[in-house]
Amino acid sequence: MNEKIAVCPGSFDPITFGHIDVVERSSKIFDKVIVAILQNTSKESLFTIDERVDLASEALKHIKNVEVKTFSGLLVDAMQEWNSRVAIKGLRAVSDFEYELQMAQMNNKIDGVETFFIATSPKNSFLSSSLVKEVARFNKPVHQLVSENVVKALKEKFS
Ligand code: PNS
């Protein structure tokens, strides 16, 4: 069988309800969804790559056809290895579009990868990992923004 595998790439530092929504919806369309977490040595992250994988795996464990993996270097190379030709990105607002379009076009140019955009649910359109970290850093509640395991992990980081 020719399994249709999609990849949802990102930093996931940490995974939010916005990401979960995009992965849930993608998992209904594709046979398998790989959540691809970038191991980026140049970008400062709050959570280590292992912590980000654990947090995402726990937050997504209710979705049967999802796998969490890491990659470094170019996304298209990881996608070749995983036999996937489709990347999925959530679009929150027009401000996301310019950068995402450029990246989608580059990935298509260098390796023929297609990018599908999913319009995020309006309830998540303001949500980003960076803002969640800022809110949590100053001890404001984040349980409406991230799953219970991430709430706990943020508390531990900032305690
Ligand atoms: O969650 P983010 O930080 O917006 O995710 C960005 C990510 C990881 C999807 C993007 O930076 C990426 O794919 N980086 C890997 C390098 C790459 O393939 N760049 C695009 C072609 S030059």
Describe the 3D structure.
This protein has 159 residues and is α/β, with parallel strands linked by helices. It is built from six helices and five strands; from the N terminus they run βαβαβαβαβαα. Helix 1 links the parallel strand 1 and strand 2. The radius of gyration is 15 Å and the shape is globular. The mean pLDDT is 96. Bound molecules: 4'-phosphopantetheine (PNS). The site of 4'-phosphopantetheine has 9 residues, from strand 1 and helix 4.
Spatial sequence of strands, sheet with the most strands: 3-2-1-4-5
For the secondary structure, the number of strands is 5
- Beta-strand proportion: 15-25%
Instruction: Please compute the radius of gyration using only Cα atoms.
Output: 15 Å
Helix content estimate: 40-55%
Largest sheet features: 5 strands, parallel
In short:
This protein has helices at 17-27, 49-59, 75-81, 94-111, 129-137, 148-158; strands spanning 5-10, 32-38, 66-71, 86-91, 114-119. It is an alpha/beta fold. The chain binds 4'-phosphopantetheine.
Write the layout of secondary structure elements.
Blueprint: E1 5-10, H1 17-27, E2 32-38, H2 49-59, E3 66-71, H3 75-81, E4 86-91, H4 94-111, E5 114-119, H5 129-137, H6 148-158
Parallel strand pairs: 1-2, 1-4, 2-3, 4-5
